[in-house]
Write a structure and sequence with these properties.
By secondary structure, the protein is α+β, with helices and mostly antiparallel strands. Helices cover about 25% and strands about 25% of the residues. Among the domains are: about 80 residues, Uridine Diphospho-n-acetylenolpyruvylglucosamine Reductase, domain 2 (2-Layer Sandwich); about 120 residues, Uridine Diphospho-n-acetylenolpyruvylglucosamine Reductase, domain 3, CATH 3.30.465.10. It is built from 14 helices and 18 strands. A 7-stranded antiparallel β-sheet has the order 15-12-14-13-17-18-16. It has a 5-stranded antiparallel β-sheet with strand order 5-6-10-8-9. It is globular, with a radius of gyration of 22 Å. It binds flavin-adenine dinucleotide. Keywords: FAD, Flavoprotein, Oxidoreductase. Its cofactor is FAD. Belongs to the oxygen-dependent FAD-linked oxidoreductase family.
Length: about 450
């Protein structure tokens, strides 16, 4: 007979949603999966997070029950592990405060449940910006423990590079403030080590300051969109790489590749210039127009927060995309041909190439748990998840072409994939931290270290 759940502590009763509750359908899912948890806790305070962690740990230990505990911030994790079946979902979306602590020092405290679009909206009038992903509905929690590649990546680096401190609740229910002085190893681990070490409830960020300009925008960007038709993909990719690498770090570029007619490839370049429209930005964008046969091109100046806008779209588990990726230093002719082969399948949604380098490559590989500071391009492969087996087989050769994988941009939770996310010394250090802070393996709804 199925064991009944023990009574919830009093502090959680008003924030718990059980399957029979009319709100259950609104909180059970993330972007990729419809969950069937036994209970969802809509935590509003750190005390409730502590009580929820203790409750889940007690059930796992004393009742010898498999009671998975998922942590959900924005619900946009590609792994879909922020909801589960038969366990608890600790939903932090109500903990979404964004507070500018010290404008002069650019210190901003953000609770894990805030969305990046709302962060941009709050910071922009103050000329402040934190490099994040480019989708406004992704959550602060998931991104700030794993990576964070956005449209200002080459100007300001990864999101995890901007974390100056954090509050984390570990599996024993203890609250820790971590930064360079306090528990520096744990601080190192939560910046790229994913959610294996505990629940981060809030982050202290060191934001960047945008210099006021004449345009009237507080954090100005210029977005160029260029549609190309390509006959020879290797030469085009090589020219694109050379172009962004020799341009300013104010430029971040994303290429979206798809199969076109008659063996051609269609590519859309999305180029982001941090700053006002200027002779420098126009010169760089003019060069983008010479990379291949241009079908259409446009440029638009705008506010950063208007691009990274939160839509607050309800999470219903309907996203059918499955993503894989590899981080590379260079795309050789051989690799470009393999990319072309990936595109030639009906289930593919496209291949995305993201420019790295610039500020991402400034810190040393020991700065935080992101080891890939030499790589210059991320190759991301998107396809229909119903064809995961076939598509994963096709992507397999790419593992030898690159040096690592961005874990939060991959839907593949297998141990083979995880071995490419963290390697060598970083992997060992994370495993040791995981053993120390989660000895009974409470936080299993994530990559297994
Ligand atoms: C449409 C879309 C666009 C995206 N665009 C980008 C992009 O431009 N750049 C980019 O870098 N990524 C991008 N991603 C990937 C996404 O940002 C990451 O997967 C990120 O982890 C999602 O964070 P979340 O809080 O929304 O996820 P959630 O689903 O809530 O969480 C994902 C996992 O992170 C861990 N976690 C979440 N919150 C916490 C916490 N508070 N403490 C500890 N662990 C936690 C948990 O293990 C959880 O299972 C995109 C994803 C989608 C679906």
């Amino acid at each position: 007979m199925e064991k009944a759940l023990p009574e919830l502590p009093a502090s959680l009763k008003n924030v718990a949603v059980f399957p029979e509750d009319s709100r259950y359908d609104k909180v059970r899912s993330n972007d990729y999966k419809v969950g069937h948890p036994k209970v969802v806790i809509l935590a509003e305070t750190e005390e409730q997070v502590i009580d929820a962690v203790n409750y889940a740990a007690k059930i796992n230990q004393e009742q010898q029950m498999n009671f998975p505990l998922s942590i959900k911030s924005g619900g946009h994790g590609l792994s879909a592990t922020s909801v589960n079946d038969e366990g608890m979902v600790l939903d932090l979306s109500q903990m979404n405060q964004i507070t500018i602590i010290d404008e002069e020092k650019r210190l901003v405290k953000i609770q894990a449940g805030a969305l990046w679009g709302d962060v941009a909206q709050k910071l922009t009038p103050h000329h402040l910006v934190i490099s994040s992903g480019d989708h406004g509905d992704t959550g602060v929690g998931g991104l700030a423990v794993s990576g964070g590649m956005g449209i200002l990546l080459r100007s300001f680096g990864l999101t995890i590079d901007k974390v100056a401190g954090a509050t984390i609740i570990t599996a024993d229910g203890k609250k820790h403030w971590v930064d360079n002085e306090n528990e520096p190893e744990l601080f190192w681990g939560i910046r790229g080590g994913g959610g294996q070490l505990g629940v981060v409830t809030e982050f202290l960020f060191h934001a960047d300051k945008a210099v006021p300009t004449d345009s009237g925008f507080s954090v100005p960007i210029v977005v160029q969109t260029v549609d190309y038709s390509i006959d020879h993909l290797p030469a085009f990719i090589e020219a694109w790489h050379q172009w962004f690498d020799t341009s300013s770090t104010k430029l971040t570029s994303i290429l979206l590749l798809n199969a076109g007619d008659d063996d051609t490839i269609v590519a859309q370049g999305r180029n982001f210039w941090y700053g006002d429209d200027s002779s420098q930005s126009r010169e760089v964008f003019e060069k983008a127009n010479k990379l291949g046969e241009v079908l259409e091109e446009n440029q638009k100046s705008m506010e950063y927060s208007d691009f990274v806008r939160a839509q607050h779209t309800p999470l219903e588990g309907k996203n059918t995309a499955y993503g894989r990726n590899i981080l590379v230093k260079h795309i050789s002719e051989n690799v470009a041909k393999e990319i072309q082969y990936l595109l030639d399948k009906p289930f593919v949604y496209g291949v995305e190439l993201r420019s790295l380098g610039g500020a991402v490559n400034q810190p040393t590989s020991y700065f935080n748990a992101w080891s890939y500071r030499q790589e210059e391009i991320m190759i991301a492969y998107w396809f229909d998840k119903n064809y995961a087996e076939e598509a994963n087989n096709l992507f397999q050769p790419f593992l030898q072409f690159g040096t690592g994988i961005y874990g939060a941009y991959s839907s593949d939770e297998s141990s083979t994939e995880t071995h490419h996310v963290w390697k060598g010394e970083a992997a060992e250090k994370l495993r040791a931290l995981n053993k120390r802070y989660d000895p009974n393996q409470l936080f299993t709804q994530n990559r297994k270290l």
